[in-house]
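Technical note accompanying the year-one report. For the benefit of new consortium partners, we illustrate the data format agreed upon in the data management plan: each record pairs a sequence with a structure-token string. No post-processing was applied to the example shown here.
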Amino acid sequence: MRKQQKSDSDLLKTYARIITLILVSVIMAIIGTKHFSSVDNIGTKSLELEHSRLLYVLAMVKSQWLSQGQPGSLKLNWEDTGHGSANKQREVDNIRASKNIVKMSDEGWPLLNKDSVEGCKELWHQLMASDLHDIKAEVIYQTKTKICRFATEQSGSISYQTSSGRVIFFDNNS
């Protein structure tokens, strides 16, 4: 009878281990699903932050433009406020900052130096003092409407219309 009791005890331990393993697997699956579903939202938040940042920078540039008597161009001086990768290339940034002159429209909005994708990239760098690689954005320039569009695969896009200074954020999740 001892062999039967020992066998039953071993069988119960095995069942307890199987049930525990199943419960842990279910909990891990739930946590994993919630984590990976929030990964796309991280990209959206990043682009939303860049959108807000761009709005603040444009307001600051227009304010500077007004305070300087509405000149045809402004020299933006961001080299002291750059973070992250900008500090790694201090000399390169200082050279770029010395050339960081933005053409302004009659209404006080920054204009492109070149009506092209390169012009959009250059304007982004001048205004935001950051590289588009940081947010992994693709740049599209619409010639007819003179709109620069900075788009990411998962989270949406930011559009900047150079003729009016209008900035629009499009969210892919909506």
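Partners are asked to follow this layout when depositing records. The two ends are 67 Å apart (CA to CA).
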